[in-house]
Amino acid sequence: MGADDKAKNKAEELKGKVKEAAGRATGNESLEAEGKADQADSRLRQAGEKAKDSAKDVKDAFKG
Prior knowledge:
- It contains 2 helices and no strands.
- It is mostly helical.
- The longest helix has 35 residues, at 29-63.
């Protein structure tokens, strides 16, 4: 996983947590749900990046 991608995904996750907390604090269910969705989306992208890294590691293991 590239450092830029990792930082971007982490920032998106934190943004989602802030939205969720703000929505909960203000009683705005829509904002809270949007925050949860942002977090889930970020986690999904992180998992995809980790899978790509794992596949690359396996490929590299067979090269050398």
